[in-house]
């Protein structure tokens, strides 16, 4: 991991499927209020818990999305930062924090633009019904049906709400990490943060 710290982002998806799946199923239940939706969802838990495939429905596409998405996120961010370092002829610790934020924001947008189709498929699989109500038995089937019914726009359904928080969240995340690294390394406060 020390040689390639970006590989850490690929480990997280293993724990990232079960709870979001149930949240998605509760959100898409037809009941009028949250309590009714939770109670309605409880009826689906026994069959879910009886089979691994039910509990981990959408796991493969989630892992694919996370592996791909966070790989893009870190690679784009690092590529942009290295470009800034080279263009300005400075050490990384001399770069202003707002430039890290801009690099992070751009990386966040690209993360969601490239991984959103997989997120759509994941959500469709995780919110799918059970038994006779199940539409998607495999990831391939979910992709095929989504493509048939909506084409490219079907794969990018809901992209707006995903892109809106991407810039500020990614910008804040990467700028905070860089500033924290500088402080830990004894490089002092970046110019844009000095008081």
CATH topology: Mitochondrial carrier fold
Biggest β-sheet description = none
Mean pLDDT: 78
Overall shape:
elongated
Count up the domains: 1
CATH superfamily: Mitochondrial carrier domain
C-alpha Rg (nearest Å): 21 Å
> Which structural class should the secondary elements be placed in?
mainly alpha
Listing every helix as H and every strand as E from the N terminus to the C terminus, the arrangement reads HHHHHHHHH
Helical amount: 55-70%
> Which CATH class applies here?
Mainly Alpha
For the terminal residues, how far apart are their CA atoms? 36 Å
Task: Provide structural commentary.
It is a multi-pass membrane protein. Keywords: Membrane, Mitochondrion, Mitochondrion inner membrane, Repeat, Transmembrane, Transmembrane helix, Transport. It is found in: Mitochondrion membrane. The protein is mostly helical and 195 residues long. It has a single domain, classed as Mitochondrial carrier domain (Mitochondrial carrier fold, Alpha/alpha barrel), CATH 1.50.40.10. Helices cover 67% and strands 0% of the residues. The chain has nine helices and no strands. It has helices at residues 18-28, 34-42, 45-49, 52-55, 59-88, 97-126, 139-155, 159-163, 166-184. Helix 5 runs antiparallel to helix 6 and helix 6 packs across helix 7 (139-155). The chain is elongated.
